[in-house]
Specification:
- Helices cover 15% and strands 28% of the residues.
- The chain is of the alpha+beta class.
- Strands 1, 3, 5, 9, 10, 16 and 18 form a seven-stranded antiparallel beta sheet that branches.
Length: 409
């Protein structure tokens, strides 16, 4: 009986290992792969995590442990791998935990330093470049960063930066977040200048998936955790100029009505207005001549996808025109347009007409980080389990992302 049981257990163990390997192979065989960390592959037993990379690649991106508060504020303890508890399970057999740290001077993350990222395939940047980031995770709390090259800068005027020892300009490129303004959504962020958007101090080119992930206690039972894996993803397609957020293989359609009233995206609404007014000869009411032309936000509005008559009386007609990325209320008098008002902005996908920021070759670019990014507010951010991180140098399709989510089931 014992011999039979031992054989059954051995067979189960081999079968489970084969299943994990098949899942890893599904990711690594997908065209466009740059790097895939499954938190099982290491330099050697007990050493740093490394990434699966394409055959012939010269860099497997080993991950260092760090505390960016120690680096930039010169406060708090060092971080080590011991600060990232291991689950011993997950879509690819292992996962790390990002904890809700109570020490305000301790924000540990895993990262590849800029010196080992710059000009490698992971350093996706420039005009015409596309990117996909996929993270398999269980979200305990928070809405901030999961993975990417997104150094938000420490030059922003915040209460927390009053004591900073090392001031650095923003070096944002691309990253995937757990929602930001829509907590729990898959939020893709891309920057064209490394710094701010639309005269706001933050970068605002971002999308939000229609669906939002639930909160699951990180110390839930193994059975609950096994059923709680979510597949977060973001794509930037440089051909369509779209940033799209995907949760569990689904993107969905998301709009923001009355963007002028939003705390942050009101800046995008103003960028739309300023860009429109600038096209009209002569000074216009509401026009800001000092608004930077490279920060106008004017998605294509050549031909509406749908037109709804809001009201019509005598020679005055009001229409709601729906375009691919905006909804605009247009007032016409005797058939001539007299007024345009932005009614809604599309958040998923988000129209992004730029390239990806290219840091100078002087060491100032950002690192690739997992679990957190460098930012001035020093909030805890995302907490929970991360079971895999993959980066591709193209925009993956809906079918490919759905296939990736099937690996988490």
């Amino acid at each position: 009986m014992r011999a039979v049981l031992a054989l059954l257990l051995s067979t189960f163990s081999v079968s489970a290992a084969d299943s994990v390997q098949e899942r890893v192979t599904t990711v690594t065989s997908t065209p466009g792969l740059v790097a895939f960390w499954d938190f099982t592959k290491r330099e050697a037993p007990g050493k740093r995590f490394t990434a699966h990379v394409p055959a012939g690649a010269k860099n497997d991106y080993p991950l260092d442990a760090g505390n960016y508060i120690k680096d930039l504020w010169h406060a708090g303890p060092d971080a080590t791998y011991a600060d990232f508890p291991m689950l011993g399970a997950g879509p690819f057999g292992q996962a790390i935990r990002i904890k809700a740290e109570t020490n305000p001077d301790f924000r540990p993350l895993l990262y590849v330093p800029r010196s080992r990222v710059h000009d490698t395939p992971l350093d996706i940047k420039g005009a015409g470049k596309a990117v996909t980031v996929v993270v398999w995770a269980i979200r305990e709390s928070g809405n901030h960063a999961l993975a990417g090259i997104w150094h938000e800068g420490t030059d922003l005027k915040e209460k927390t930066t009053e004591t900073i020892a090392k001031v650095e300009r923003g070096q944002r490129q691309y990253a995937l977040f757990a929602g930001l303004n829509k907590e729990g959504a898959a939020c893709g962020h891309v920057s064209e200048n490394g710094a701010s958007s639309f005269t706001n101090k933050y970068a605002l080119h971002k999308c939000n998936s229609a669906e939002q992930s639930p909160k699951v206690p990180a110390d839930a039972t193994a059975e609950v955790l096994a059923k709680s894996w979510q597949t977060f993803a973001m794509t930037y397609d440089s051909k369509t100029h779209e940033i799209t957020g995907w949760l569990n293989g689904q993107s969905g359609d998301r709009w923001l009505d009355n963007p002028q009233k939003d705390r942050l995206l009101s800046y995008a609404a103003n960028a739309w207005l300023q860009g429109r007014l600038a096209k009209i000869p002569g000074p216009q009411e509401g026009e800001d001549p000092k608004f930077p032309a490279d920060q106008y936000y004017n998605p294509p509005e050549d031909k509406p996808l749908k037109v709804t008559v809001v009201s019509e009386k005598e020679a005055k007609r009001v229409e709601l025109r729906e375009y691919a990325y905006t909804k605009v209320k247009v007032t016409l008098l005797a058939g001539q347009e007299t007024e345009r008002e932005l009614v809604s902005l599309r958040l998923n996908p988000w129209w992004y007409p730029h390239g990806i920021y290219e840091p100078k070759n002087d060491g100032t670019g950002g690192p690739f980080t997992i679990g957190r990014v460098i930012h001035s507010s020093r909030s805890v951010g995302f907490t929970g389990w991360i079971g895999g991180v993959a980066v591709f140098d193209r925009a993956l399709t809906a079918a490919e992302l759905a296939k990736f989510h099937a690996l988490a089931k």
